[in-house]
Request: fold
Amino acid sequence: MTMSLPLTIGPLKSSSVITRYPGNPILQPSDVPYAPSLVFNAGVAKYEGRYVMVFRNDYADEANKTMLPASTTNLGLAFSDDGINWEVQPKPCFGINDDEIIRTYDPRLTIIDGRCYMCFAVDTRHGVLGGIATTEDFEKFDILHTTTPDNRNMVLFPEKIGGKYVRLERPFPVYSRGGKDRFDTWISDSPDLAYWGNSRLLLGVEDVPYANDKIGPAAPPVKTSKGWLATFHAVDRDENRGKNGWESSWKKRYTAGLMLLDLDNPHKIIGMAKQPLLAPEAPYETDNGFRNDVIFPGGMILEDSGEVKIYYGAADTVECLATAHVDDLLKLCLE
Ligand code: BMA
Reply:
């Protein structure tokens, strides 16, 4: 396996099978009734007859007098009858109060056997890790598992496969790749959601033609007749990029990729879309954001009609929706 990656990727376009919701963004800071700055990277699921969204809300930490709108984070909650119009609940729903923990963010929701599970990232004073919690009411969460550092972007499959729970994840080893990001997508399984093992590499950054930096899971996978449809985030870096958003320099672009995994052996990739499913093009993805040119799916729902709703954070600032037909998504992976 060659590890050399292209220095630049060049212009990228979204797939023609995808349609952005014309009313995007579907959730933005002005929709949130408590201190909001940036509302993005949400987990979304259909649960007990309605859509539920847990979103990341980054806000300025007044105590630290930071100029950035994003010095700390809580997780907000919203419900919807149609998956488009959202009712944000009056207060944030999740956080961990512990001196070791700086913040929790990037929630991902999966329903397994009628129970709701949430994977999330945790910044701690000793590294970044992933957690899995379960809840019945989105008020009380029981934490079932946390990883060692450094790991992030965990997502659960919506059912057991071969008698085991399965997750995708993105560890970020600093030693292996010469100090570069070069992070990959891994797959692990568990008998009980608490103890995880059988970890193996699923997809390497070098396997994605539109990435030269890092990749990782995005929304939790969705079951189809042909396999598990799984989105991933793909990052390319270009040293010629400069200021683009709040920070003095932002050299990365985040696109959404799509792959198809074998139903019984999800560590087997059956196909992958050759081009990004979504690349930053719309103004809310490319301009006036905290970090422009970032698309990060966190929720994917297959409706009975065959429509697939893909929820994604745009420019680390707002939450958006795009749709496609499941048959077109499968074709993209298999052609
Ligand atoms: C990653 C995470 C994501 C974020 C992305 C782009 O490292 O923090 O939550 O969307 O960067 O800023």
